[in-house]
């Protein structure tokens, strides 16, 4: 039987995990889900026993100390803002605060946002390493806090958000977020962005957005490409599974209902060819924004599953200087979509750029 070769892909990152024992994974290379003990300081490390916690303590301590130091900085920098409207949950109140202050970012607010961004970054690194849902959510929470106070404050928090949402398999929200920035442009103000179910199938180019997004544009296009690739890959996987099942079943009556079944399973409102065309358009936009980014991403695939972020950081930056932040955020997510590298290759070859890639390799 051939069922083992049946492709299986649901359009999600299967590596998103519930908390597991950090020590068992690190020392025995197995993942244990159990009643945990959590690190009492950072709450972002889980263990199946006190022995495991002890064993892992030396390794965890550095990350834990860093996290606590960032927490402490945020707690300090929030003090002078305690009674200020800048921390309001209501974005209209925050907006009025800045208008009343001539839209100038005071030193205090700047420091708070800077510390908040650093804290989010530590969570990001942690989540990238352990891939635990709660840690990704913590990173998201702090990035969103930065945006809430001052959306235009820095690119880092804004760029991380769609990728965190993708690592969390919240593709509709990622799409809604991207669309929001396409409408608002780089200086957009924060407001809750409307999320419609299944909006990930929409076409960003039809949504009539002309805002200037500056440096934000490129990472958002990469995130958009991942959303479309997931749709196409899951559609193809289901479709191929149905074919294989029918080839092997060899039952005439069932063959008659084949197309009905296919429609049912594939949700035929989705035009996969149309989604592919949209993906191609997105690749073209990336290419226009930063020529050879896609080639560099192909080269980066080899780094994409490395857990230790500090190495990844250095390796990528030295090997691929032009890629900057965006690649660090997205390569793993990107290449976990089945046939992602084939899709990229096809685009690059189709774009008549094959010669250039070879020259680049030789240089
Ligand atoms: Zn353990
Ligand atoms: Zn800790």
From TrEMBL:
The protein's matches in Pfam families, at most eight in alphabetical order, are given as: zf-MYND
InterPro entries attached here? Znf_MYND
Entry-linked PROSITE patterns: ZF_MYND_1, ZF_MYND_2
Looking at the record's lineage, which domain of life comes first? Eukaryota
* Domain spans labelled MYND-type: 21-64
**Keyword set, alphabetical order:** Metal-binding, Zinc, Zinc-finger
GO MF terms here are:
zinc ion binding
Identify this protein by name: MYND-type domain-containing protein
The protein's organism comes out as Fistulifera solaris
